[in-house]
Write a structure and sequence with these properties.
22 residues; mainly beta; 2 strands; 0% helix; 36% strand
Length: 22
């Protein structure tokens, strides 16, 4: 990835521990 997606359309939610799949 080239950057961080702050959208809910991503694979999941961005958290300090990583990306949580939804």
């Amino acid at each position: 990835m080239a950057g961080v997606d702050l959208t809910e359309e991503a694979a999941g939610y961005w958290t300090p521990d990583g990306i949580v799949a939804i």
